[in-house]
Amino acid sequence: MPTPLTTVRRRAPRGRYDRAVVDAILDEGTVCHVALTSEGGPVVLPTGYVRIGDELVVHGAVANALMRQAADGRPLCIAVTLLDGLVLARSTFKHSMNYRSVVVFGRARVVEGDEKAAALARFVDHIAPGRSGEARAANDSELRATLVLAVRMDEVSAKVRTGPPLDDEDDLPLPVWAGVVPLGTVVGRPQPDPALSRDVRVPPSVERLVSRSGPAAPGGR
């Protein structure tokens, strides 16, 4: 249910409060922006994330000042945006974008122990499904250097724009092209690390990523 914080007021019909819609957007995205008020003023940090059940999980270095402040339990705002298209109208004023976005309000809890290691594995698999089973897991030293935070999505909403431009009726006869230019993420061919041995082949996790746009390279090089 919408709350005073999550209720979409500007272009209210674009607001979405169905968790299925929210989860689908979050599961497709990979980058979020975390905002809080620090001692020096407002701060926004772009970072990776993963949704695990009813929580949005972020991580960073223990030395990261914003992460440490977030771990203190101060209020957070996390935003995720997927840009789907440029909406070109007959009037410059009516130009827009098609997008899907999610905003989460809450306070973070620190994730520790076995849950922390599992959450970091989920981060890797969110980027490349199955990758955590192919690469070395984080060791104790790396785990100690990493701060993992989880924010319950009790206050969350989405906002979505789709469709063509919304020109004024008086502008429709203008001889100006109008429409939507779709945008999306393209997965390119894998580029092997120069230090990679020639007998190391492209793993299934990378093959699955590349299959979105074309076949994977046949070997490690």
Quick summary:
By secondary structure, the protein is an alpha+beta fold. It is built from five helices and ten strands; from the N terminus they run βαβββαβββααβββα.
Structural description of this entry:
This protein folds into two domains: 12-163, Electron Transport, Fmn-binding Protein, Chain A (Pnp Oxidase, Chain A, Roll); 190-221, no CATH class. The protein is 20% helix and 34% strand. Strand 3 (41-52) and strand 4 (55-61) form a beta hairpin. The chain is built from five helices and ten strands; from the N terminus they run βαβββαβββααβββα. The protein is globular and about 65 Å long. Strands 1, 2, 3, 4, 5, 6, 7, 8, 9 and 10 form a ten-stranded antiparallel β-sheet that branches. It has 221 residues and is an alpha+beta fold. The chain starts with 14 loop residues before the first strand and ends in an 11-residue tail after the last helix.
Beta-strand residue percentage:
25-35%
**What string gives the helices and strands in order?**
EHEEEHEEEHHEEEH
Counting DSSP H or I runs of 4 or more residues, the number of helices is 5
- Termini distance? 51 Å
CATH topology of the largest domain: the name is Pnp Oxidase, Chain A
- State the CATH architecture of the largest domain: Roll
What structural category do the secondary elements indicate?
alpha+beta
Overall 3D form: globular
What is the number of domains? 2
Main beta sheet: strand number and arrangement? Answer: 10 strands, antiparallel
- What portion of residues is helical? 10-25%
Topology at a glance:
Elements: E1 15-16, H1 19-28, E2 31-38, E3 41-52, E4 55-61, H2 65-71, E5 76-88, E6 96-106, E7 108-111, H3 113-127, H4 140-144, E8 146-152, E9 155-161, E10 179-182, H5 204-210
Antiparallel strand pairs: 1-9, 2-3, 2-5, 3-4, 4-8, 5-6, 5-10, 6-9, 7-8
